[in-house]
Each structure stands twice: as structure tokens, then as C-alpha cells.
Design a protein that fits this description.
Radius of gyration of chain A: 19 Å
Helix content of chain B: 25-40%
Number of helices of chain A: 7
Number of domains of chain B: 2
Number of helices of chain B: 3
Helix content of chain A: 55-70%
Number of domains of chain A: 1
Mean pLDDT of chain B: 91
Strand content of chain A: under 5%
Distance between the termini of chain A: 19 Å
Order of helices and strands of chain B: EHHHEEEEEE
Distance between the termini of chain B: 83 Å
Strand content of chain B: 25-35%
Mean pLDDT of chain A: 94
Low-confidence stretches of chain B: none
CATH architecture of the largest domain in chain B: Roll
Shape of chain B: elongated
Structural class of chain B: alpha+beta
Largest sheet of chain A: none
Oligomer: heterodimer
Largest sheet of chain B: 6 strands, mixed
């Protein structure tokens, strides 16, 4: 028997639905972006041509990242974190992976390509992926709060057990 | 609406996966179909890779006309008179003096070009359009 979840139709529920929609859309976008790149690398028909920037600086960054192989890592991580977000597994970790990728996408779109007119465009994932990552991380803030421990002591080997315990936890 | 309701976790998860599938379809449409890509051999390649393939068609396969049609944008800026090899069947040979030089979407080819028996050392500066696009500008400098 599946666990029953009780809810009320109030603001909190609506916000949770919207945040879940954001998680699913960000995950879907990450999966699509990463998959398109790997389809090209495997010589298969791709989803969209890989953008290589509209300005010299943007082009330099993207072409260099692709040519030195860094994009292989980035696009693999996009697929990994996308799957985490879509399937609602290890979501806090998925968002930690998505955040730096989204930040670089935002920097490329706004700073390097100068698209300041689309800074808050809700349909432009070049910026929205970054904002979604921030909003979703705030929604999962309680998982990141321990990172702000003022004076942290080192742990021991026994802490590895906590990784397994955390992976089994439904919270 | 008010009042407490219940829903099974499994149903909720299934709904979320259906929504995710719909989002994926929408994203695929926005990225693959809506832009109306003019697909061809020039697209979705890194600039130097694209130029290498372009040069192979022109100088090794003798298909300069085909290559110009597929790899160069219809509104590209270049002096066609300086590029007699951009036509099918022209006997043109090119030997790179040094490997292609790439800087973002600009690629430079320094080569010894022989067209119909006449050899020149030329520097071709190719600029490639955005989003893995076609060549949109070529400047040719001929060494004296």
C-alpha cells in the first residue's frame, strides 16, 4: 500500500506544486541539453546544433571548453543532475551539480553575449536555469544549512556510514 | 477550495513523471522543431572541424560548388571573384602552410593554393555564424 499524503488547497500547496514544476522543467532541460551534445559526439542526429556563442569572448569560451574536453564532463553532469531532478532522487545533490552549470550558462548568456534585454525573460532558459536553481536550492535549504557550521570539526571514517544512511532516507 | 484531502505518494509520483514527459516534449519542440534549422553537413560542428570538412570537399573532392552551397550562408559576405575554386570540377589544390588557426568562430587557413596551374600563397579568414551555423564571412589575403 502506497503512503498517503494529506494536503490542503492553500498557498503552501500551490507553491510546492510550482516548485515541483520548476524542478521537473529544469531537470528536463538539463537532460535535453546534455543528450543533444552526446548525440552529436556519437555521430547521431542531434536535437539542436551546439551553440558556439554570438560574440568573440563567448565563442572562445565555448569552443575551448569543447575542444579541451571539458564539455564532456559538463554535459554528462547535466544528464546526471537532470535525471536526479526529474525522478526526485538525490535532489539536493542534483541541485548542487546544476548550480555551477547554470551559473556559467547565465554568465555566458548575459555577460559574454550581452543579452541584458533578456535578463528576466521567463522563456529564456539561458537565464531561467540559473534562477530556477537558486529558487529550488532555497526550497531545499535545510539540506544545505549545515554547510554554514561556524566551527566545524573533522569527522572519522565512520562518517562514510552516514552516506549510506542518507541514501536510504526518505525525507 | 478548502479541507484536507489525501493522495497516494505513488499517484503523485506518477503524475510528476507524466508532467516531466510533457515538459520534455515541449523542450524538444522548442529546441528541435520551432527554430526550423536548415540542417546540413556544416551544422553542429566545431569551427575548425567544419572548415576541415569544407576544405576537403573543395580541394580534395573537387566539389567546390556543392561545398559553397552547403557550408556558406546564402547571404555571406565575400568576394566571389577571389574564389574561383568554389565551383564544381575546378582543378584546385591546397596545401596548408601550417595547421588551421582557430579563435572562437574565426578560423584562419594559411595555404599554398594552386588553381588551374597558378600557385599563390593565400591567407583565408573564415568567420562562422552562431549556433553551429554556416560560414558568413570570408576574407582572402594574397601574399605578394
Amino acid at each position: 500500500m502506497s503512503k498517503q499524503i494529506s494536503y490542503d488547497w492553500n498557498l503552501s500547496t500551490i507553491v510546492k506544486i510550482l516548485l515541483t514544476g520548476g524542478r521537473l522543467y529544469l531537470g528536463g532541460w538539463m537532460i535535453m541539453s546534455g543528450t543533444s551534445y552526446w548525440l552529436t559526439q556519437l555521430g547521431l542526429p542531434t536535437i539542436f546544433p551546439q551553440p558556439v556563442g554570438n560574440t568573440p569572448l563567448s565563442s572562445q569560451m565555448l569552443v575551448t571548453m569543447i575542444e579541451v574536453g571539458l564539455f564532456d564532463i559538463v554535459k554528462t553532469l547535466e544528464i546526471v543532475c537532470g535525471l536526479m531532478l526529474v525522478f526526485n532522487r538525490f535532489v539536493p545533490l542534483g541541485l548542487v551539480i546544476a548550480m555551477p552549470i547554470s551559473a556559467v550558462v547565465w554568465y555566458n548568456a548575459i555577460i559574454l553575449n550581452g543579452r541584458y534585454d533578456r535578463l528576466f525573460s521567463p522563456t529564456y532558459m539561458g537565464v531561467m536555469c540559473f534562477y530556477l536553481s537558486i529558487i529550488l536550492m532555497l526550497a531545499y535549504l535545510r539540506f544545505y544549512a549545515p554547510l554554514l557550521t561556524w566551527k566545524a570539526k573533522m569527522g572519522g571514517l565512520g562518517d562514510f556510514k552516514k552516506l549510506i544512511e542518507a541514501a536510504k532516507t526518505e525525507d | 477550495m478548502s479541507g484536507s484531502r489525501t493522495i497516494s505518494e505513488r499517484t503523485l509520483y506518477a503524475i510528476s513523471l507524466v508532467v516531466a514527459a510533457l515538459f520534455l516534449c515541449n523542450i524538444y519542440y522548442q529546441l528541435h522543431i520551432a527554430p526550423n534549422w536548415q540542417w546540413g553537413p556544416a551544422l553542429d560542428k566545431m569551427p575548425k572541424h567544419m572548415l576541415t570538412d569544407f576544405r576537403a570537399e573543395v580541394y580534395e573532392n573537387g566539389k567546390g560548388g556543392y561545398a559553397a552551397g552547403e557550408y556558406i550562408a546564402s547571404d555571406a559576405e565575400y568576394n566571389k571573384d577571389l574564389f574561383p575554386e568554389f565551383a564544381d570540377g575546378v582543378n584546385a589544390n591546397s596545401e596548408l602552410v601550417q595547421p588551421l588557426i582557430g579563435d572562437g568562430r574565426t578560423v584562419v587557413a594559411v595555404h599554398k593554393l594552386t588553381v588551374n596551374g597558378s600557385e599563390q600563397t593565400v591567407v583565408d579568414v573564415y568567420h562562422i555564424g552562431p549556433r553551429g551555423g554556416r560560414i558568413d564571412n570570408i576574407q582572402r589575403y594574397i601574399a605578394q
